[in-house]
Input
Amino acid sequence: MVSAIRTVLGDVRPEDYGVCDAHDHLFLSSPQLPGQELNDASAARAELDAFRAAGGSAVVQWTPYGMGRRAADLPSLSRAAGVHLVCATGLHQAPHYTPELLDEVRGKLADVFVSELTVGIGTSGVRAGIVKVAGGFHALDAHARWTMTAAAEAHHATDAPIAVHLEAGTGALDVLDLLCGELGVPPHRVILGHLNRSPDLVLHREAAASGCWLAFDGPSRAHHATDWRMPDAVLALAEAGFGHRLLLGGDTVVAGARSVDGGPGMPYLLRRVRPRLASALGEELVERVLVDNPGRAFAAEWR
Output
């Protein structure tokens, strides 16, 4: 089979993907973030234009099922901005949903994921390219185990990558034990997000040694304490031989964080993070992390 990245405009060869923001959001809504929704298509277009102007070529949107993905709007945004977009299926932590919505998918979650990966999301015709799920703070509750079990079933049916929100960067090894140990997902199909939020260098190396992908996606929204440690964490992984397992993202979650609304937004990854990392790691490795690694991490042999 030929390996390809499933974008909202169709499958793309990894070598054609370009500079990638490996974790971000164009649209997102949640009861946990009232009044801070990402739901403005014009602002989304402006953000993509700013990212493109900074040298970006591709964005992986981790917004999953039931959180305002607006999948039908993504193809036109991708064409207009000239940026590859990947859409997600999956399910976040329970507090991001109403009980009624969770009841709608109970008993058929894996089927929902597979359908959105292979047939399309609703009537949009847009196929998802990743499954996004989430752990808890230093633990996996029943909801996380349910969603990750469904994600593993969807992976085995389609070969889709599984992207995991780690709460405050914790629980990585528990996630790997479940997904890769109990559920049989190959580690190279798992992407762990938010490692920058918990700069535990020993844990980072242990997770990387499993063969999974480690995403450093910020800056921190709560405080700056972990941001200045991130280059050291990435450098330590590179020096330990894991430069080929690293990804970088922006994770813009609320409207005020967009660059067009005064926040760092998507361009920050290339305007500020990239040169900071280049000074620590060298431009060649940073190019690999932004271009080569995403091309391999998000490609699948789709079934």
